[in-house]
Write a structure and sequence with these properties.
The structure is a single chain. This protein is an alpha+beta fold and 499 residues long. It is 35% helix and 18% strand. α1 (11-19) runs parallel beside α2 (66-86) and α10 packs across α17. It is globular and about 60 Å long. Mean pLDDT is 95; it is low at 320-324.
Length: 499
């Protein structure tokens, strides 16, 4: 059964819908929760397949039209469903990196010391892990990667296997074919690799100077913000690899938002076309406002847009998704949802909402990329020219009606400030910033942990340590900017007095 979907959806949306396993699809707009009016939709799949028990496949999509927003939500559902239905059933290889290299060769096995291990991790070349097959985008050759990085949720793991890091969805991609999907996942990795140490709690306050001629699409979005009394604050993270990496936050100037948590919204983008990057971060910021109100706001607010019984049905199905396993995120979000907008804005004042400099928008590099294939080609050319190896785990359905992948790029890094994952790349970035997070010395402790590097990188960088206590102090009360609990869990628990 399909309810709430807009009429006359195009072929791309129907390709997703027809590929999904049996179940009820429920769709509805959530942008009425905000006053911007930019389309934001929730699309949920309540599956019949018992293999998906504990997984609540849903997506929040946005765009210039309702159809574009629904398409984005459908893609997110695909990224949740197919890892469990394909990777979960796939044979795993068990062994250590050293053993596998002896039998397969170094090029056929990803070195865990290049995969951004958590600081202090005991994993080394002798550690027995479970591995799944990935492919090298450059030539299609086979590469084994740890299941720890390939998985979307614990459902894909062998019972009893404990991953060496918290499972995350960063790098998931979906699309009509492999190149489109891989490019999608790669740009997500580039986005977080590029901005992870430069925004949120570590925001440098570099505003994007828009004092130039802007595309009509951009001007139309900015006009919506102006009319709604919301000051959009687009910011610059980096343009490494020739890919503008931007983000947007904002301030309600004339009236309070529908829910205090909306003041913490943020939109991100990494795209070869600077106009596309700016438009995406602006529209994602708008979507983040509505999404946060819907996912973590009070039940009476959610009831304004959700069908009757939706949240109860959602909670009955949910449980094993990647974002449900972080108790720190749950506890921090529980605290946030009890705060007023002024308190949350106060926490953001010196970081997220800071203004310390500017970068001209018209000085950003730009390369037109009108569709997913062009975007993928631009990202691929940039990172391969820089010497990175793009790997992907194919999780597509057997009939290839759509493509779903998890992209892994050894050497690129995410989740340093949340899960203390750090390698050579972020160590060098923090050293360049003269950050107190990097320390040196022989003594490790519970909070001063050895950064896990290849022997050559460890020697070159002086065997550095990561100060997790300093990281926690810098993040302070802003942890939900990094990781959020599953939608509705905090509000549902609070309503029942169990939070």
């Amino acid at each position: 059964m399909r309810t709430g979907l807009p009429a006359d959806l195009g072929p791309a949306a129907h390709a997703y819908l027809d590929a999904f396993p049996k179940g009820d699809v429920v769709a509805f707009p959530i942008h009425p929760l905000d006053r911007l009016g930019l389309p934001v939709w929730v699309v949920a799949l309540f599956p019949e397949d018992p293999a998906l028990g504990g997984i609540m496949p849903y997506g929040v999509g946005y765009g210039a039209t309702d159809e574009a927003a629904v398409l984005g939500g459908l893609g997110e559902i695909a990224e949740m469903v197919w890892p469990t239905l394909t990777l979960g059933a796939r044979a795993k290889t068990r062994g250590s990196y050293a053993e596998l290299v002896r039998s397969l060769g170094a090029r056929a096995v990803a070195d865990p010391l290049t995969l951004c291990l958590p600081a202090g991790s005991p994993v080394d070349h002798a550690t027995v892990l479970e591995w799944v097959e990935a492919r090298r985008w450059a030539d299609g050759s086979s590469v084994l990667v740890p299941i720890d990085l390939a998985a979307y949720s614990s459902k894909e793991l062998t019972p009893g296997y404990r991953p060496f890091t918290t499972i995350i969805s960063n790098g998931m991609g979906a699309g009509p074919d492999l190149d489109w999907a891989i490019g999608h996942g790669l740009c997500e990795i580039l986005q977080r690799d590029g901005n992870g140490l430069l925004f949120r709690a570590l925001d440098r306050g570099v505003m994007l100077d828009l004092d130039t001629s802007l595309a009509p699409s951009t001007r139309a979005i900015l006009d919506r913000f102006d009319a709604a009394g919301i000051r959009a604050m687009p910011k610059f993270a980096t343009d490494q690899f020739g890919m503008p990496n931007l983000y947007c936050v904002g301030v309600d100037e004339r009236m309070p938002p529908a829910a205090p948590i909306m003041v913490t919204a943020c939109g991100e983008a990494c795209h070869s076309d600077r106009t596309a990057a700016l438009d995406k971060c602006l529209t994602e910021f708008a979507a983040s406002r509505a999404r946060k109100a819907f996912a973590h706001g009070p039940a009476d607010l959610v009831a304004q847009v959700a069908p009757a019984g939706y949240v109860a049905r959602f909670m009955a199905q949910a449980g094993g998704a990647a974002k449900s396993s972080d108790s720190r995120a749950f506890d921090a979000m529980r605290d946030w949802t009890g705060r007023d907008a002024a308190t949350l804005r106060g926490w953001l004042a010196e970081s997220v909402l800071s203004e310390r400099g500017s970068h001209r928008f018209d000085a950003l590099p730009t390369l037109p990329a009108p569709d997913g294939h062009a975007r993928a080609a631009a990202a691929r050319a940039a990172v391969e020219a820089a010497g990175f190896d793009v790997l992907y785990v194919d999780m597509s359905p057997a009939d290839r009606a759509i493509s779903v992948v998890k992209v892994i790029v050894p050497g690129m890094e995410v989740e340093t400030m949340s899960y203390y994952r750090i390698g050579a790349r972020n160590t060098e970035k923090l050293l360049a910033l003269e950050s107190p997070l990097i320390r040196f010395g022989a003594d490790e402790s519970q909070t001063l942990r050895r950064i896990r590097l290849t022997p050559a990188d460890a020697e070159r960088l002086g065997h550095p340590l990561f100060d997790t206590a300093a990281a926690d102090a810098l993040v302070g009360p802003l942890y939900p900017l990094y990781r959020e609990p599953e939608a509705h869990h905090v509000a549902f628990a609070r309503e029942r007095g169990t939070a």
